[in-house]
Amino acid sequence: MVLCNSNNETKLYDEIKNMPFDSIQNKDFANDNSVLRISEKEQKAFLPYKYKEIEEIYNNSKDLFSSTNDVIEKLYILPLSNFKHSVFSRFREAFNLITRKEKGSIITALDLGLELMFKYDLNPIIIAACRNLDELDIYLDCLENNELYDFKCFDIQFEVCPVND
Predict the structure, then answer these.
(1) Residue 36 — φ and ψ, nearest 5°?
(2) I need a labelling partner for 135 at 20 to 30 A (CA). Which of 5, 47, 76, 80 fits?
(3) Contact status, residue 136 vs residue 104, Cβ threshold 8 Å
(4) Rounded CA separation 73/79 (Å)
């Protein structure tokens, strides 16, 4: 099931989803993406982003990226193998959220990493998709209260391969 906030996002998402990966890098994505798509079939996680942030990253790091699409490909499309060991992945993603996105202290990052490390109902990809600590806090509140339908920061879509009996 695809959950998107608008018809434009649905159309863009469908266009991206059905496109071969090679042609994604040639496409100009001058739109926001509010869907976290975790694709077992493609073995990739497609993180949500604001295009304004993509442009800012590109403009501040032109020596690292060849285009805004290159930013998306390198920073917002992640292999699922990065999250293979979920306990360590939760710690790492929480640590990175505090140190890289929030520019917080290592002590705070260690504290959050240790707190979330053994939270088995939390997918580490969700932490990676959160743009800031507020989004993560909202998600954790919704998760704790079993009200994930109230999480509005971004939509989450899991694409799983069919099971052979």
Answers:
(1) -90, 115
(2) 80
(3) no
(4) 11
116, 137 contact by CB (below 8 A): no
Using a cut of 0.70, tell me whether the model's pTM lies above it: yes
For the stretch 36-90, pLDDT in tens is 999 999 999 999 999 999 999 999 999 999 999 999 999 999 999 999 999 999 9
In contact, 68 and 49? CB cutoff 8 Å: no
Residues in the chain: 165
Please name which of 71, 115, 77 lies closest in space to residue 94, comparing C-alpha atoms: 115
CA distance 76 to 98: 18
* Helix extents (H) in 64-123: 68-71, 86-96, 106-117
Do 34 and 154 meet the contact criterion of CB atoms below 8 Å apart?
Answer: yes
